[in-house]
């Protein structure tokens, strides 16, 4: 039960508009995207969702239940100087009743992110989005950095939580995935890192096999074609290997949002940490203009609609 956690931590779960969800893909690599958390004080899980038309986050969590939720962007939460909180937990993918999920999402999202709502008549035309798969994340270990300051030792909360697996601390370390290597990919959007995005959520695999995520200050070195971590976070078990860097932003009402991620290798060079980019992936973004949102996302929307239709047909069969 999360009821044993301090009220300050529970308020973060309840009030933050976004959390960075990290899952592990079919190759064991971390993949991080911002999602909206749904939580009630004392609940056993923190819930996040994904649309039926783009179920990869749920597919990854079903394949490997070790996930992480990082609460690092307080925009719109209306909390004064909240901590940055990392939850390492196990996921239960809930797509057992899609209609119930859909009704729940329509109700809860209207309360949580009113700025992103559209007329109900249009929601039926966007079933690929509003038909939701829920992922229930059961916390096993919680880290909290006071005031979001990664230079301070985090508070570790696990010994007082009833849901921590028995003997987890005695589990052997998971074999470490070395940097993948390969061609360096450089996208012009990377140059937004360090300027539009002075910090981003860095995720990698911890020694126990759980994803670990933390928001770090960053800068870009175009000459070296790397993204530099400008401050080593205290309490983060950094080690060379595959990693993901997620950059995103939104306003306080979530009437617009932008996001992308960079997948690559976390490396140490001359005593400094950096991410060597191998792939930039753009997310599903919401420009300020609804017309512009339809224009820039038209291709994705068609693809997501086809995927949802195929999934519904498979389930009906």
- Helical content (DSSP H or I, runs of 4+): 10-25%
Strand content: 25-35%
End-to-end separation in angstroms reads 38 Å
Q: Spell out the CATH superfamily.
A: Electron Transport, Fmn-binding Protein, Chain A
Rg value: 19 Å
Q: Which structural class do you get from the secondary structure elements?
A: alpha+beta
Number of domains: 1
- The run of helices and strands is HEEEHEEHHHEEEEEEEEHH
CATH class: Mainly Beta
Largest sheet: 7 strands, antiparallel
Mean pLDDT: 89
The low-pLDDT segments are 159-171
Keywords:
globular; 7 helices; 21% helix; Pnp Oxidase, Chain A; alpha+beta; 13 strands; seven-stranded antiparallel beta sheet; 317 residues
Written overview of the protein:
The chain is α+β, with helices and mostly antiparallel strands and 317 residues long. It has a single domain, classed as Pnp Oxidase, Chain A. It is built from seven helices and 13 strands. The protein has helices at 7-15, 56-63, 98-112, 120-123, 127-130, 290-296, 298-316, and strands at 19-24, 30-35, 46-51, 66-71, 84-94, 132-145, 155-157, 199-205, 211-221, 226-229, 241-250, 257-269, 272-282. Strands 1, 2, 3, 4, 5, 6 and 7 form a seven-stranded antiparallel sheet that branches. It has a six-stranded antiparallel barrel with strand order 8-9-10-13-12-11. A hairpin with a 5-residue loop joins strand 1 and strand 2. The chain is globular. The chain starts with 6 loop residues before the first helix and ends with a helix.
